[in-house]
Specification:
about 375 residues, alpha/beta, TIM Barrel, tRNA processing, DNA polymerase, domain 1, 4Fe-4S, 10-stranded mixed sheet
């Protein structure tokens, strides 16, 4: 990646190699190196992506003598669920994962009548330092590997398919990269993960790119790079302020790429892909929820291929940042509507279960969760 997209990451041991790290040709080469015929890679991938199976002892089409070695080398255990916590009558389930090096991160499954959405993490921690975000205040521990990202999805999809989540058996319909971390700061692994999620079985899970949303705080060179990838994922920009003075405080990366630069890159993405951009805006009481800021935002967005998600802030314990008053929330929404900007207030899930990104991991590790 270009130098301007390099963010400091502590040097750590690498996760074990996993088939989700590998494309089809790489996987065929890997099994050949293990003394197996190359088509064994396709068989492994068919089980993992097609049947959501990770246990090679159950893969009866593989030679008995090869199953353990192939499992050890290409399907090693990556993630251990430390805790599942639920709310919303079981329709929201947050999972705290422990990786091979005891690093922890989270994913959140949200079930709705018409869809099942999984919010996944792309990093353990985050280096963007947004002061109202639990993950941002914890700092960056490390990037997740491609397989660690994908295995969150496969593991939850397996639980859904097996009826192990409240509401009965189901299947994942949407993936949002809005968990821990800045996805575009882990660009190469993110991109490979999206391809693993959306390539047809056995090359991947076979989900539609249109069902995948990638969020960013506004890393302009990475947005431009994503624009050139010829993909159709939805881009979500975590804006949180329409003016540079406040956004410099709320989203520190704004000191490098200003509001207009970020939005210009987003509009180029929308024009190239034909996909509407989501503008994420966490409403924070007396900070960014004034009517004049809604008017400023409306003027920036009107006539653009964009939709605003207003997010009632899910406050972190001990933080000075809190959710807007309902009347200010309504005024903000009406002001945007007055500019003809499509806008909704996001259905806030998980407030009872350390719902904001990073809270569960921080509480498990005994770290502070807010400023």
């Amino acid at each position: 990646m270009p130098a301007e997209l390099t963010f400091a990451e502590p040097r750590r041991a690498k996760p074990p190699r996993h088939l989700a790290d590998l494309g089809p040709q790489e996987l065929a080469a890997a099994v050949t190196e293990l003394g197996e015929k190359s088509f064994r890679g396709k068989q492994l991938a068919q089980h993992y992506y097609g049947s959501l199976e990770s246990d090679t002892t159950r893969m009866t089409d593989l030679p008995t003598a090869s199953r353990e070695r192939l499992g050890d080398e290409l399907l090693p255990p990556l993630l251990t669920p430390v805790r599942h916590v639920t709310c919303d009558d079981g329709q929201t389930r947050k999972t705290l994962w422990r990786a091979f090096d005891n690093v922890m991160f989270e994913s959140v499954l949200m079930r709705y009548p018409d869809r099942n959405t999984l919010c996944v993490s792309s990093q353990a921690g985050c280096g963007m330092n947004c002061p109202f975000c639990a993950t941002g205040q914890a700092g960056l521990t490390r990037n997740l590997s491609t397989a660690e990202i994908v295995d969150q999805v496969v593991s939850v999809a397996r639980d859904l398919a097996n009826g192990e989540v409240e509401g009965g058996p189901g299947r994942l319909s949407n993936i949002v990269f809005m968990g821990m971390g800045e996805p575009l700061a882990n660009y190469q692994r993110l991109l490979r993960a999206v391809r693993r999620l959306t390539d047809p079985v056995p090359g991947g899970l076979g989900m539609s790119q249109r069902s995948v949303t990638v969020s960013t705080v506004g890393l302009v060179p990475a947005i431009e790079r994503l624009t050139a990838e010829d993909m159709r994922v939805r881009l979500a920009v975590s804006l949180h302020a329409p003016d540079d003075e406040l956004r410099d405080e709320l989203v520190p990366v704004n000191t490098r790429w200003k509001v207009n630069e970020v939005l210009d890159a987003a509009w180029r993405y929308a024009e190239t892909t034909g996909r509407r951009v989501s503008i994420e805006y966490a409403l924070i009481r007396d900070i960014n929820d004034q009517a004049w800021r809604a008017d400023t935002l409306g003027r920036l967005l009107r006539g653009r291929l964009a939709h605003v998600n207003l997010i009632p802030l899910n406050p972190t314990p001990g933080s000075k940042w809190t959710a807007s008053r309902p009347e200010d929330e309504r005024t903000f929404l009406r002001t945007l509507e007055g500019h003809g900007v499509p806008v909704t207030i996001r259905d806030t899930r998980g407030q009872e279960i350390d719902g904001a990104c990073g809270q569960l991991a921080a509480s498990q590790q005994g770290q502070p969760t807010g400023s």
